[in-house]
Predict the 3D structure of the following.
Amino acid sequence: MKKFFIYFFAFIFICFILPALLTKRNIETSSNVQAENLNATSEAQNNEEKYNYKNYGIIKLLHHETGEVEEVELDTYLCNVVSAEMPADFEIEALKAQAVVARTYTVYKIQNKKHENADICDDSNCCQAWVSKEDRLARWDENLRESNWKKIEECVNTTKGKIITYENKPINAFFHANSGGTTELPVNVWGGGSNLPYLQVVETAGEEGYTQYSSEVILTQEELLEKLKTKYEDIQINFENSEDLKILEYTDSNRVKTIKFGNHELSGVETRTLLGLRSANFEITKQDDKIKFTVKGYGHGVGMSQTGADTMAKQGSNYEEIIKHFYVGVEIKEINSL
Ligand SMILES: [Zn+2]
């Protein structure tokens, strides 16, 4: 009987357990091999895909809050910039346009340095917005984190090496959130001498579908005076007289060029800053003792409108068409061909 059990277990071991163990080993071995192959393939692809940026491969990024200067690969840096500057749910071609704009802006900054020990900083009010991957992922819904980041990486990688040029030089690629339908000339925002031939007034249909398109600010007479007095202490407005609160002139893009506030005339841009309006494209209406500013668009209005880019992409334009719409007469070139 004992012998029977020994034979029985030996039979079971040879017929079932041993093959199972061998098979498991094989699966493990083959999956490792497969993993190695996958890694090998992706390494080969990465090598193949890696663009040789020559002078622009590594950039020195200044973190403005800590003062630390970090050295990062250009395209890695651009993923952080694009994810900080444009919503990840925008169309692929709009995000690609943003990637090329950001790359161009970065190269322009490297050539026209503003900071002593760095090429560019991470302050959107100074250079270009930037967010760490960790912080960016934390702000997205958990189920979208991986796909959003992949989408951004794809937009940077499929446009690698590409920048926008005018007369063979990188352009100063200004952009903003929403043009309110029409972009603005730089001279009307930053004053004389700042005009560049590729920054013209261009129209884009469809921007009204975005939340950035329309906004309003309602102020009491006292609130309005208080805000204006931060710059013009002696300001006086007779609110009973319609001539005392009046838009005098518009720019070609229909933004306010000059506006009269009592004894002072201000530019639309200055009014925007003092009153905290989203753009200089506004109308004024009186409501009893209140003044309503109805605003179109968001931002200075120069160069590419991000929501305009998204609209164009939805209508079938690719990133090159989007870029050439907002920057007139430019070319898209490989950085190393310059
Ligand atoms: Zn800066």
About this structure: The chain is about 40% helix and 20% strand. The CA atoms of residues 183 and 301 lie 5 Å apart. Residues 2-49 form the longest helix (48 residues).
